[in-house]
UniProtKB/TrEMBL annotation:
<dbReference type="InterPro" id="IPR050706">
    <property type="entry name" value="Cyclic-di-GMP_PDE-like"/>
</dbReference>
<protein>
    <submittedName>
        <fullName>EAL domain-containing protein</fullName>
    </submittedName>
</protein>
<dbReference type="Pfam" id="PF00563">
    <property type="entry name" value="EAL"/>
</dbReference>
<dbReference type="InterPro" id="IPR001633">
    <property type="entry name" value="EAL_dom"/>
</dbReference>
<feature type="domain" description="EAL">
    <location>
        <begin position="1"/>
        <end position="229"/>
    </location>
</feature>
<dbReference type="GO" id="GO:0071111">
    <property type="term" value="F:cyclic-guanylate-specific phosphodiesterase activity"/>
</dbReference>
<dbReference type="InterPro" id="IPR035919">
    <property type="entry name" value="EAL_sf"/>
</dbReference>
Amino acid sequence: MIRFWGQSKFSVDPLKPVGCELFLREKIGDSWVLPDDFAQFPPQQIADLLLQTVPVLSKDLKNVSINLDPEQFIDPEFCAVLSEVKNQLLPVTLEVELTEHDSKFPVNSSEIQTAAKHFFEAGIDLIMDDVGSGSNQIDRTLLLNPYISEYKFAIQNFRKTRSLTSIIHSLSFWCELAAKNNKLFTVEGVESKTDLQLLINYRVNLLQGFGLARPVFLPIQAERSRRAVLPFTQK
């Protein structure tokens, strides 16, 4: 059994939930876990789960995003089925986040670029997830720039146990690149009021992190007894 868990994305001014990132989880025994192999779930199964899940979200949310690893991203069937369901999700907008994960088998730059072009032509917004981490370095980002609408910078990938001020150079670089290329800029991994206060000095469009809202289980239509709790209460 698979379900989505959801974590809200917040606008900066005012600070309120405006979107939701969906994380696929698999039930093993009594626990919901990160699947060992996402390839075991065909594109149509993911699309069907989207259609069952999005209606339980708060109507205040404007968009939802799902993560695709490079192998999924270059699979033409994913673009095809997501193109079919995106209009059924309206007025909620569907977005795709290309993860920074290293590929289990070789995926070349040409395949990534071609897939990005197809999503773009299908009217599906693309998000470069965790820029500066894993495979989503500057070369791939610039290659896909014509098709990307948003960069996401994951604080947690850089600072680990360090303070946010220790990664200012990396944060500034990606913030400036987003502004230069007219992309939305999201900072994820926001954990405290101190983080928020520091980020005021940067051109940040969206925020995400445990300090604002943690991921929560999302029922599907057949399971719900009430509307899911998104958007979340701020902490």
